[in-house]
Amino acid sequence: MDYLLQLAADPAAWVALVTLVAMEVVLGIDNLIFISILTNKLPEQYRSKARRIGISLALIMRLALLGTIAIIVRLTAPIFEVFGHAFSWRDLILIAGGLFLVWKATTEIHHTVDPRTHAEDVKESKVTIGFTAAIVQILLLDIVFSIDSIITAVGMTEHIPIMVIAVIAAVTCMLLAADPLARFIEANPTVVLLALGFLIMIGMTLIAEGFGAHVPKGYVYAAMGFSTAIEGLNMMVRRRRAAGAGH
Questions:
Q1: Residues sharing a CB contact under 8 Å with residue 59, sequence separation 6 or more, in sequence order
Q2: SS3 for 93-156, per residue?
Q3: Which helix (H) or strand (E) holds 205?
Q4: pLDDT tens digits, 34-68
C-alpha cells in the first residue's frame, strides 16, 4: 500500500501513465481494425459478441503477460543467427503475425473485389464454425499485438501498476470503439478496402520489425491518417453528389 501511495504522489509516474495510455491506445488501433473487419464477416447477431470476446481475450492475455514480465523481456534475447543477423522469439512472433496479417488482408481484398468466389453461408450448422474460426484468428493476432504492447510498456516504465492501468484503459477504449468502428466500416464499402490496405501495411511493418528494420510508428500512423482524411473527402463528395441527384 505504501508503494502505491508513493507512486500516486510521484509526478513522473503520472506522466509515464498518461504517455503509456496514449501509446497503448494507438497500438490498439491495429488490433481493433482487424477485429472489426473479421467480425463483420459473421452473421449480424454474432458480431458484437465476437468483438467483446476478442477484446476481452486481449485484456486477459495482456494482464497475464504482465505477470510474466521476466519471461517477456527474455523474448528479445537472440536465439539464433542467419547471415549474421540474430533473431529472437519476439522477432519470430512479429514475422509470423505479419505474414498472417498480409495473408488475411489479401484474402479479404480478393473476396471483396470478387464476391462471387465468397458465397455467404448463413446456415446455423456453419455459423458456429465461422464464429469459432473468427475467435481463433482474433486470439492469434491478440498474441502478437499483446507481446508487442507489453514490450513497449516495459521500455517506458518499470512500475507494474502503471502498466496494468494503461492496459486496462487502452482495452476499455477498444471495447467502447469496437461496435461504432465496425458499423462504420460495414456501412462504407470503400473504407473496407482502405482498412484492409492498412492491415497489409501493418503486416509488412511487423515483418520488417522482425527482420530488424525499425519502422517509426509515427510514419505508419501518419500515412493511415492521411489516407483516412482523403477517404473522408471522397465520402463527402459522394454524399453531396447523391443529394444533388436526389433534387
A1: 167, 168, 171
A2: HHHHHHHHHHHHHHHHHHHHHCHHHCCCCCCHHHHHHHHHHHHHHHHHHHHHHHHHHHHHHHHH
A3: helix 189-210
A4: 888 888 888 888 888 888 888 888 888 888 877 77
Q: How much is the pLDDT for 75?
A: 75
Residue type, 195: A
**Per-residue pLDDT tens over the stretch 191-240:** 778 878 888 888 888 888 888 888 777 777 788 788 888 888 888 887 88
The set of residues, in sequence order, having a beta carbon less than 8 Å from that of 112 and lying 6+ positions away, is: 189, 192, 193, 196
- Grid coordinates belonging to 15: 506522466
C-alpha cell at 233: 473527402
CB 150 within 8 A of CB 69: yes
Q: Which of 73, 54, 47 is nearest to 147 (CA)?
A: 73
- The Cα 164–Cα 147 span in angstroms is 14
Residue 36 near residue 55 (C-beta atoms within 8 A)? no
Domain boundaries, the chain: 7-215
Calpha distance 234→247 (Å, rounded): 20
Q: What is the mean pLDDT of the segment spanning 126-139?
A: 73
E strand or H helix that includes residue 242: helix 217-246
- CA 135 to CA 141: how far, in whole Å? 10
Buried b (16+ CB within 10 A) or exposed e, 172-200: ebbbebbeebbeebbebeebbbbbbebbb
Give the pLDDT score at 126. 42
Closest C-alpha among 212, 78, 197, 95 to residue 144: 95
Residues 6+ apart with CB under 8 A from 72: 65, 147, 150, 151, 154
